[in-house]
Design a protein that fits this description.
alpha+beta, 4-stranded mixed β-sheet, 10 helices, 14 strands
């Protein structure tokens, strides 16, 4: 992901259209910023050669450390921003406007909203003299921040045919140039303030990279000919390792982030929980195992389902995971970002709701793990293998490749837990608009853990809490079993 973003060249290949605002970054402003960056690193101040040699050495070490921190922040920033454009590149301007349901957003909106986040929460408060790219963008690309102002209704984001894709590409370049200047010129105290907000902004954009793929997959699935996001890819069927269970003794354990390094506020504070002895499956459930549930009448047996889940089965006529269908011969096939193909029995089943996960667990005589059990197991030292995270060339789960009996807990599919998404004891949302990021959604949703095949590398950690309503199916969500020991 360490790619270089060339300011002034759109990674998506969009041309600047006639409706691009006239106040975008021009040559004079670019020259001023380049000069400012050059002067910021022009060398030691006059008279430094007269200083005490020990003081000079100490100052140079501090400067090297400071330059290293800035360079690392800039590398991270540009790598994340470039990946967003890489993921959007296969899509036409028409593709990028699609919104197939209220829960999804157009690709163009994701690209603009992530730029708006940096503009609103970093550039406007901390960049002296910063001029917003377009006054209308605060309304169009605010997501849910009440403190920031009114916004376009979420179900109508697909109505925003203007600004064009070219204007959004220019907007991203404009914000990138200003962010490069902000990071490069901030003094030590300002950099210390900016670093946590920058980490939040990058993690936020990584979340939208995942949503960009899940949302366009849903949109393409609604097309009568189910077009592929990427060219069709052949795959080799591999056997999944045998499903086994690892026992854990339980007891009083601590979960939650310890405050070292970046984490979202919903991962904190760290706190003790009491766990009874339990066992956790070594891997996620496969498509072949889920097919056995289907063939045994899983979608026709109300005794397996939670009441709300059974109501959804009947109301929505669920008969299989989302994106599954039967061909003319009755064989099950799956729609992927590479197009339709046969279901691979060895790969993890995905695009199932919490209700389907719970019904499968009941059918198997097991249950879903709590999030505390999941996190304790993930940090126990018994998790010895990981699955795949986002590979832009292969955005689909693969068969788990781990030795029999080895606990694999990250990547491939998000895993539903039996835990409602609630605040940890002592949770306090951050002050200001960024405090709306997580806390106000802590009702009516279930926690998922572990990351998926479209989660960017390095985004998740054992304490990471994803959350969705129990009926949600368009994410790469799967199933891991647990039971009492």
């Amino acid at each position: 992901m360490n790619q270089t973003l060339v300011i002034g060249a759109g990674a998506s290949g969009d041309a600047v259209s006639a409706d691009t605002p006239a106040h975008t970054l021009g040559g004079g402003e670019a020259d001023r910023r380049a000069a400012a960056q050059t002067s910021a690193v022009a060398g030691p101040p006059p008279g430094l050669h007269d200083a005490d040699p020990a003081e000079t050495a100490q100052r140079r070490r501090a400067e090297r450390d400071d330059d290293g921190t800035r360079a690392a922040l800039l590398r991270s920033y540009h790598a994340v921003r470039q990946l967003t454009e890489q993921l959007a590149e296969p899509l036409s301007p028409e593709d990028q406007l699609l919104q197939s349901m209220p829960d999804a957003s157009p690709t163009k909106w994701h690209r603009a909203h992530t730029s708006w986040f940096f503009e609103t929460f970093l550039l406007q408060p901390y960049q002296s003299g910063y001029c917003v790219f377009d006054d209308h963008y605060n309304y169009m690309f605010n997501s849910y921040y009440e403190a920031v102002g009114a916004r376009q209704p979420r179900p109508e984001r697909g109505m925003l045919s203007r600004p064009s894709g070219g204007a959004i590409a220019q907007y991203r370049r404009y914000v990138d140039a200003a962010m490069t200047e902000l990071i490069g010129q901030a003094d030590d105290a300002a950099l210390e303030t900016l670093a946590p907000l920058l980490a939040l902004g990058l993690a936020h954009e990584q979340q939208h990279q995942e949503l960009l793929l899940t949302d366009i997959k849903h949109a393409f699935s609604r097309h009568p000919f189910a077009p592929a996001y990427l060219p069709r890819k052949s795959f080799v069927r591999e056997e999944a390792p045998a499903l086994d269970f690892v026992a854990f003794p339980g007891g009083i354990v601590e979960i939650g982030h310890d405050g070292r390094g970046f984490a979202f506020d919903n991962e904190q504070p760290r706190h003790p929980v009491l766990l009874r002895p339990f066992r956790l499956a070594t891997r996620a459930i496969t498509c072949g195992e889920y097919l056995a549930f289907m063939e045994d009448g899983g979608y026709r047996r109300p005794e397996l389902w939670l009441s709300d889940g059974w109501a959804m089965v009947q109301a929505e006529n669920w008969q299989a995971p989302l994106y599954w269908s039967q061909d003319a011969r009755g064989h099950w096939q799956i729609f992927t970002l590479h197009g339709r193909r046969a279901v691979d029995p060895a790969e993890p089943v995905c695009h199932v709701s919490f209700y389907e996960a719970a019904a499968f667990a009941a059918w198997a005589g097991k249950r879903l793990p709590t999030e505390a059990e999941w996190e304790y197991a993930a940090t126990s030292g018994q998790c010895r293998s990981h699955g795949h995270f986002l590979d832009p060339r292969h955005p689909h789960p693969r068969a788990i490749q781990a030795p029999d009996g080895s606990l694999q807990m990250f990547g491939e599919v998000w895993e539903w837990t039996r835990s409602a998404y609630e605040p940890y004891p002592g949770f306090r949302p951050a002050a200001g608009a960024v405090g709306e990021y997580n806390g106000k959604f802590m009702v009516g949703q279930m926690v998922l853990r572990g990351g998926s095949c479209v989660t960017p590398q390095g985004h998740v950690r054992p304490t990471y809490r994803n959350f969705f309503p129990p009926a949600a199916r368009w994410q790469f969500s799967g199933i891991r079993l647990a039971d009492d020991a």
